[in-house]
Amino acid sequence: MKDLDLKKFDVRTDLALEAKELAEKPGTGPIPGIQSNTEEEDGITVTMLHVQNEQGSQAIGRMVGHYVTIEVPGLRDGDTKLQDRVTTKFAQHFEAFLQRLQIPKTARVLIVGLGNWNVTPDALGPLVVENIMVTRHFFELMPDQVAPGYRPVSAVAPGVLGITGIESSEIVQGIVDRSKPDLIIAIDALASKALERVNTTIQIADTGIHPGSGIGNKRKGLTKEILGVPVIAIGVPTVVYASTIVNNTFELMRNHLEAQKGDTNQIFGLLNQMEDNERLQLVREVLSPIGHDLLVTPKEVDEFIEDIANIIASGLNASLHEAVDSSNVAAYTH
Amino acid sequence: MKDLDLKKFDVRTDLALEAKELAEKPGTGPIPGIQSNTEEEDGITVTMLHVQNEQGSQAIGRMVGHYVTIEVPGLRDGDTKLQDRVTTKFAQHFEAFLQRLQIPKTARVLIVGLGNWNVTPDALGPLVVENIMVTRHFFELMPDQVAPGYRPVSAVAPGVLGITGIESSEIVQGIVDRSKPDLIIAIDALASKALERVNTTIQIADTGIHPGSGIGNKRKGLTKEILGVPVIAIGVPTVVYASTIVNNTFELMRNHLEAQKGDTNQIFGLLNQMEDNERLQLVREVLSPIGHDLLVTPKEVDEFIEDIANIIASGLNASLHEAVDSSNVAAYTH
Amino acid sequence: MKDLDLKKFDVRTDLALEAKELAEKPGTGPIPGIQSNTEEEDGITVTMLHVQNEQGSQAIGRMVGHYVTIEVPGLRDGDTKLQDRVTTKFAQHFEAFLQRLQIPKTARVLIVGLGNWNVTPDALGPLVVENIMVTRHFFELMPDQVAPGYRPVSAVAPGVLGITGIESSEIVQGIVDRSKPDLIIAIDALASKALERVNTTIQIADTGIHPGSGIGNKRKGLTKEILGVPVIAIGVPTVVYASTIVNNTFELMRNHLEAQKGDTNQIFGLLNQMEDNERLQLVREVLSPIGHDLLVTPKEVDEFIEDIANIIASGLNASLHEAVDSSNVAAYTH
Amino acid sequence: MKDLDLKKFDVRTDLALEAKELAEKPGTGPIPGIQSNTEEEDGITVTMLHVQNEQGSQAIGRMVGHYVTIEVPGLRDGDTKLQDRVTTKFAQHFEAFLQRLQIPKTARVLIVGLGNWNVTPDALGPLVVENIMVTRHFFELMPDQVAPGYRPVSAVAPGVLGITGIESSEIVQGIVDRSKPDLIIAIDALASKALERVNTTIQIADTGIHPGSGIGNKRKGLTKEILGVPVIAIGVPTVVYASTIVNNTFELMRNHLEAQKGDTNQIFGLLNQMEDNERLQLVREVLSPIGHDLLVTPKEVDEFIEDIANIIASGLNASLHEAVDSSNVAAYTH
Question: Which intervals of the chain form a coiled coil (chains A, B, C, D) (predicted)?
């Protein structure tokens, strides 16, 4: 496959859904090679996106593969019943990935929690790992005594380059060589272009993790090509660039005023006619030199991250072990 | 004194410096009743602002009193030598407050760390309290054995309403009634209108803490009127509203383009002619209903907050105890 | 009431149950003024102890009042079903205290979490406070909108003398003066004389907290006499002195060998004939000068403390609010 | 080399110094094959122990190699000047190991922090790793720009079996295969037989880490034989068995009374004539069935562990990088 021209897609989002939104032009039809379907139910919006071929891949700057995005704006209210429903929904969609990839029920799974546990918005991966039900050692040490309905699951948080001095992908490769899993699930914090998606959205993808994605330093990626086994990536946007907040808001304002008054050219002047990317460039030009173009996260990040890490861990525990009841998965984490 | 019309000043900043910036119109002279003086030295900018009378107070929406703002953009780089210089500078300016208020060297001091220790951007106050050198109990239990050069210092973190069920001001009043300090120093996390000031700025004020300021729930305030003893407030902006990021950026873009090209009306259309507050209203109208107008904080908030809490604690330890060497204050905290 | 001669009872236990055990001599009958009853059910042993009068009080060195001790050795295994049963049992016995003290269902309650959150075995009180459902502010701010089945509950963690410079009892008094509760519940970490009771035992007492009890610095106590409202004390032993481990083990060895072989004089020599306190003195004489007589806690203290704090918080939430279902209280904390 | 009969040496200590103490019989000369030398200076006692051959190894149950033990009872007082002196002393002795093993100044070093970060007394390794100055990534990414006086250092905390499901030795092997260090430094929490050594003692050994040592689950060990490069082990005792406290105290009591009164047979009866191991067996027999024989740690473990982790990290930073000044190493950690 040809390398993607990442510059072109440098809109600072790790969500395939947002990449597609950015690639769509008003008035034109669907993007060839991209199939997409959205369902909404009781406050949970699920978008299934299929990048079918290279044409689609080049159009939105994402690898060929399946992407599922679960958006739940209400997650910010700390409603435990909603959290339980999201857990169940996440588990269902995750299981569909296992089936599509034909992962057997006894396949050995390694869960990799990427990110830095000392930086709250980057700590999603390590937090999920803390709540995973690991079982591999029981299979190694006393295989005859493991109850039916479980599979060998292991979990590691390899840290980040600035703390270990070693690429996290190198560490993962070393662990894979030794522990020989059949499937890797990599969890990572992401960047979004929209503040309202931060800490309210989960993306599942069968493409692995590619260089440059995620908010940390993951230059080498975690993919089937590199590691030899399939890699399912689970990501949650936890940060957004100040410049994309500004640019995104401009778009929202234009839509808002267009609906109300009609002539947005008069209101917004030349800004109105700029391409999205062009305008973003302008915003960055202004913000970057004075240190304004920071990655930011909502004030309540500590609680949001913990809630969503629990959802993912509970959902994985239920999906990976048949013996864990999918209807009451939350009880298995704390 | 008349009540301030807070609506008018609802630009969502707790910094007097920013309130003044917002009140100044280009082309008009200095604001009557406001005296201001700014010094810059080696990356540290200090602004001394004096709200001299009610006229000044009404103009910028701040209480009559002295405000010192220390801005250090370089603090984000984690440079320990710069941190030491800021500590010394902060201690000098804090000592000037003690002198102006004629606080004797033996006066008993209570340090109040406001905020919620479970919410990182709101944990500044509790973090400072953790690193304060408390001595009051030595004076109570063995007054003859306390070495010269110390004064009685106590420190509490009263929590926030949502966690205790009691207004923090009520808790502080109860503690003041019992422990009878001569001076209160209240530390709190603030909101700024400019992202680059977040976690890089310290404000000292002799006005106490007034209802509605700070990012938590402090409806009743901590003032000399309420508590019976002077209250020095120390604040650090740790959050900013998404809407003020957008509005502030618009201003920056206009200045940037004006310098380059001249006619910003053409570029910005009607937006260009709006008053700052009017435009902010528009931004909020668009962002609030869809959950975009969150308070946000930089991704690295954990480290930034810890660094600046150490600076304040070290500076206070040096200012309050003569026996603590002002040239090497950092060694007393960890 | 006469002052208790604490020296006489200086066996370094805060549990009334252990004080009684120490006061009992083999071969003599029950202690006058002490009524005691023990029940065991499914791994949970509950002892109800009533110090009926001054005679009983002097005999075991505890204040007149009711003491309930819940012992659950199995708590160390992290069994969540057992934890739920203990929560229910604790709630039942706590409600009996509320009834005996004739606390009305609308009485306002202040929960005080004593201890130091930076020292794990002393952090029980603050940990319970973190998981208490506080409601007082709803009653203050919007009394008409509070659903039936709740009462006003507030909760504070006043810190310890070494961190605040103020006696925790002074802080609590100040808060009581301002917030005017009808009942205080004080939670504290205790010392036991038996390692197996550490982190597996909960004591409830209607006597308040007296000087010298608990593992921190609480010289002034929290009692009805001082605070003007009833005080129920809840304590969990989290530490034990090395010297009492040794002394207690000696006793266990003697009983063990007596059962097996008969003549323990031959085996233990003079040690065998020493009084318990005399032997403890000898052990301390040997250990103290060389720094061996430390307070110790089991290695897994972090997890044990968290589990038992959750049990207490869940039990209190169920006991204090009728609307919280006693059969499923655990869901209200995290 | 023959396998060591570990049962024989099952006195539950990981310190070679204590193993030697246990092997020594009063009245007999030095143990053949063991060379030992002790120096005391200003509250710091350093014992250099050389297990010279298999005879010595079998006698004390430790591998052939060099062991240095630094004992500092005063560390419990939190004296920062003493901490600095211990850091310097530790760095000196650690450098002697580097020289004896002929590790060149440019050799690449991997630091492995064993243990569980959720269990305070087992968190020493991960805490040291947090404060290590890692540099390997600079050498990988921009080798020309690294200042002189540094070497490539990386650091990982592989977690424990119960959390990852993978043996920590497997994880380390995988990382070694990928990152190819020339030397490994493994840090681990240990068990001691003497409470006063807990959190006050540092052991350095050139033998690596062997199965069964340490307080966690490290069945496979980290040795030159397994990993292909030299392994220096650094350990700090952070826990002690209740049974060894009792047994050790008995020994102390006997010595104490012997000095005073002479006939300890009369006082201690048959206990007096038991072999140390025999008596320990008796103590365990009594304590184990009733859940008393726990591993315990001093109440103040949080602070002690943090202090000693800082000493080790600072000492390693100074020893490994010439550019880090050995006289002021503490400034490089926090």
Answer: none
Neighbours of C278 (CB within 10 A): 10
What is the chain D residue with the closest CA to A131?
D163
Query: Quick one: which of B115, B81, D267, D296 has its CA closest to C297?
Result: D296
Residue type, D270: L
Beta carbons within 8 Å of A12's beta carbon, 6+ residues apart? A191, A193, A241, A243, A244
Longest distance between any two alpha carbons in chain B, whole Å: 76
Q: Annotate C97-107 with b (16+ C-beta within 10 A) or e (fewer).
A: bbeeeebeeeb
| β-pair partners for C70 | C46, C202
Phi, psi (degrees; rounded to nearest 5) at A52: -85, -25
Cβ separation D178–A173 shorter than 8 A: yes
Shortest distance between the Cα of A128 and any Cα of chain C, in A, equals: 16
Relative to beta strand B231-241, strand B153-156 is unpaired
| Helix orientation angle between B301-320 and B80-100, rounded to the nearest 10 degrees | 50
Q: Which of D330, D272, D4, D321 is nearest to D138 (CA)?
A: D321
| Residue among A248, A252, A294 with most chain B CBs within 10 A, to mutate | A294
Question: In this structure, are residues D62 and D289 in contact, taking their beta carbons and an 8 Å threshold?
Answer: no
Torsion angles phi and psi, residue A201, rounded to 5: -135, 140
- What whole-number distance in Å separates Cα of residue C63 and Cα of residue C3? 10
Per-residue pLDDT of chain D (334 residues; tens, 9 = 90+): 334 344 444 557 889 999 998 888 777 788 999 999 999 999 999 999 999 999 999 999 899 999 999 999 999 888 889 999 999 999 999 999 999 999 999 999 999 999 999 999 999 999 999 999 999 999 998 888 888 999 999 999 999 999 999 999 999 999 999 999 999 999 999 999 888 899 999 999 999 998 766 655 456 789 999 999 999 999 999 999 988 888 888 878 777 777 776 666 666 666 666 777 777 787 887 787 777 788 999 999 999 999 999 999 999 999 999 888 755 544 444 4
Could you give the CA distance from residue C23 to residue B272 in angstroms, rounded to a whole number?
A: 86
User: Number of Cβ pairs closer than 8 Å across A and B?
Assistant: 140
Backbone phi, then psi, for C235, in 5-degree steps?
-135, 150
pTM (two decimals):
0.91
* Centroid of chain to Cα D315: 15
How many angstroms separate the CA atoms of A279 and A273, rounded? 9
Q: How far apart are CA B35 and CA D290, in angstroms?
A: 75
Cβ <8 Å between C134 and B171: no
In this prediction, residues C303-309 reach a mean pLDDT of: 96
CA geometry: angle at A94 spanning A90 and A98, to 5°? 170
C291, burial (CB in 10 Å: exposed 0-12, middle 13-18, buried 19+)? middle
Q: Report the DSSP pairing between strands D109-113 and D183-192.
A: parallel
Nearest partner of A234 among A81, A84, A104, A129, judged by Cα: A129
Enumerate domains of chain D plus CATH numbers: 7-243+294-333 (3.40.50.1450)
